[in-house]
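Hi L., both proteins are below.
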Amino acid sequence: MLGYAEIATHFRRQITDGELNPGDAMPSYKEASDQFEVNRTTIVRAYDILKSEGLIVSRPGKGTTVAARPSIVISGVDRLDRLNRTGRRYGPGEDSTGHRVMRRSVYDADVCRALEIEPGDEVVIRIRTFRQDGQPTSVGVSVYPPRTTNEVPELAEEGRMERYFGEIYTERTGREVTKGQRTARARQASQDEIDALQLDAPAHVAVAVLVTNVTFHDEDGPLAYWEDTYAPGTRIPTA
């Protein structure tokens, strides 16, 4: 028997995956109770969680529906998980713009440490801004060292990648790609991030943003570093 938190997770995933769309009716308490074979109180508690997260809303006489604009924004890793589950790159109302691909020498200590490269080594950097209903929500940056782009040269080409790089890498090398632990930290936003997220910030005023990152590996070492920077006030799932 599922608990209320697990039931909330079930519906949360359906909403973020696009199986339940904005405005769709949620099952009634009785329907959900029958579906999961639990009592009404368990369903009420599950729905209360989703309401507190801004994912569903209840209106007298109209029942409970998926919110017009879900307030939870998922990271690149979560989008990858969704792609594997559903085959869909984007959720309802979600898209991405500002795609850029560049070769650069990297000096960021965190990136160099994660990819086990020396400061000044050349990498391929891919950048895009994710939006929900036209509103920027996060900036995604992915960094690839030469040993990855040697096997997947498409990473250095302009335009969106049609497939997950790890899938292509495994096909060509026979080596499995695994993702490490996602971590989060707060820092000051760069001007590029402020512009991409369309933040109304006075000049010379520091803007704090939340940043998550994860490193991908194969048996020989790191293959990619992904980082997502979120607009202030954005809520993201951490589990």
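That was the first. Here is the second:
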Amino acid sequence: MDVQNIYKSYGNLEVLRGVSMHCAPGEMVGLLGANGAGKTTLFKIIFGLIQPDSGTVTLPQHHAKPLGGIIEKPGLYEYLSAAENIKLFAGLQGIKATTAFVNECLLQVGLDAKRKDPVSRFSMGMKQRLAIAIALLNQPAVLVLDEPFNGLDPVGVAALRDLILELCEEKKLAIILSSHITEELAKCCHRLYVLKGGEMIHSGPTQDILSTHTIGYALYGKGISSAQALKNYSFKIRGQMVWVAIDSDKISKLLQDLLIEGISVESCIPDYSMKELFEI
């Protein structure tokens, strides 16, 4: 999928200014932006729901359904069961929804095909999975997911992330993933786009962009608060966690020094400067 030089205005309000992005088969790209950055407008243009003032969106033409996805929130019939939702949306797309087909659609996203209760009783994570199953009907080439982690607990976020990664790697889908959770984009996206005020202010390999804007790391490990190696840096102690102000190119040296002291770091979590990333 290729988006080139998209402009969109409403009256005197410029919502998108020269926005371009690309996503290849088997690739997941992340779209990061604050509220009002223009993400939802961009997605609606990609889906053909609104027309840009100028620019082009090129979708793969070798699939019966080039594009599937979720914008803003899952659009489900909550008084119906998961299977009934699949049958309804399949019928709208001209698909013969046999019981075997419906069961396969549900199982591929980790839902119990035997459940008969209405979707209104589902957790948010289950609703997101069902919405993805519906988006995958007719095997699209590109999957667009707008804030799929919203409303999920940490277990739900991890489970949904694993599902999305599996779809990308095994089905070779091109996936565009929007999220305000930077850490999740870091874990699964090959490349990252940062949208601010309708303009792409950063684009490139995810780790390259995030490492440039890393201001420190949270280190967890037994006895780490007394480590001598920390005295070369500015740090704060919070129980068995230490936050260290350190650049990404120096963290490996600190971890080696801690290991020499006999301190095993159980986790090392980067901390990104949103102020610098969004050039505030």
